[in-house]
Structures are given as C-alpha cells and as structure tokens.
Amino acid sequence: MIKIVLSIVLLGTLMFADEYTAEDRIKDMQELDTAMSLIQKGFMYSELSYIKEGVQGIKDNAISVEPPLKGDEKHFKKDETFSYRYTKRETARMIVHADDIVQDFQEGNEKQALNTYTKMLKQCMSCHAKIRAW
User: Fold this and answer.
1) pTM of the predicted protein model
2) Model confidence over 57-73: pLDDT tens digits?
3) Cα angle for residues 89, 84, 88 (degrees, 5° grid)
C-alpha cells in the first residue's frame, strides 16, 4: 500500500515538474535580455567574444520560452494554440538569426550582422506585441 501511495505521489510530482511557470518565463526573458545586451555590446566594442557569448545565451534560453496560458487551452492542447505555435516559430527564427550574426561578424560583414541583430530584435518585439498585446 505504501509503495502505491509513494508511486502516485512521485508520478504526480513528475507530471508537474515540466510545467512552465511565470517565474520560468521571467527568468528566460531576463536571460534573453542579457544576451541581447551582450550582442549589442559586442557591436559597440567590435568584440566577437561578447557577440558569441550573447548568441549562446539566445540559443540556450530561446528554445525553452513558452507563452502565458490563455483561454484557448481549454479547447485545444497547449501545442495546438496560436500563441504556442507562434512563440516556437519566432524563437526558432531567433536561433537561426543568432548563428547568422556570428558568421557575418566573423567574415567581416559587421553591417549585415547588425541588420540581422535588428531582425532578431524585431522578432522579439512582434512576439511581445502579438502574444502579450503590447
């Protein structure tokens, strides 16, 4: 009997361990903000190491970002909602752009790298506008 109760408690704990909380979202957004600032600092000082560190921060944190839950989760699975699909699509694009920034900067195309950074920033803002209704 005790084994059954412990199994149920363990299973319940594991089920809720993967839940993406508001605190997780805030932490991810702060990490992304720091990463974007590092990339910008890299441009200002023409320092590849800052850009690489910022890009790694983007790649490490963007993939885990999930939107806040809204009413449509009542009718659809989380991964079938507009906000979830949009967020995942935009974060995937951010990761691609992040790699392009490093490549362009290393090849001496600083202006192209800066344009790509601007595209990535626009993706951040479009997600905030659509998902967070700014």
Assistant:
1) 0.78
2) 999 999 999 888 776 56
3) 25
